[in-house]
Amino acid sequence: MTRGVAEGTVTAVYRRWTRSRVRPGDTLTTAWGVVRIESVTPVDPSAITDADAAEAGEPSARAVLASLRGPADAPVFRIGVGWGGEDPRHALSAETDLTPEQLADIAARLARLDRRVRHSPWTHEVLRAVAAHPGLRAADLAELLGREKDELKLDIRKLKNLGLTHSLDVGYRISPRGAAYLASLGT
């Protein structure tokens, strides 16, 4: 879907939700880039046409209806989407010549993440583990760290949002920015 939005061939998506999960003006950052939410409109599913389906990158209205998940009695929403640009995390993660101010900002952000958890600080431990084990599956990395897999994946996403890690098809790797940060610590 995101590729179609980036190419301009997909301008709408259809979702069946008990309530709308997005609002006009929201943005979603995906692996392809940023998708803007331009409109959210409840629709009668029986009124979806083949032309509507084409806007969603689907071959037919029947295909759109078949793709809808969720409770059958839940409303269907037409979500107008547009391209918001490249994923800003890509440019951020490519930075390697970090200033003292940038290093201090990263350290402060990591400290805030560490303070928000009930268990011990985790950010530096996870960064070092990702750096030491590129491509390691999330389940294996979680076992190595003594963590629950889904919780660890959320934490790594937080590091990715800071430009410190990259997601791979399987596992993760440290980004150039993350490597530069760790190097500044003598790691």
UniProtKB/TrEMBL annotation:
Q: Which InterPro entries match?
A: WH_DNA-bd_sf (IPR036390)
> So which domain of life are we looking at?
Bacteria
**Protein name (database record):** ASCH domain-containing protein
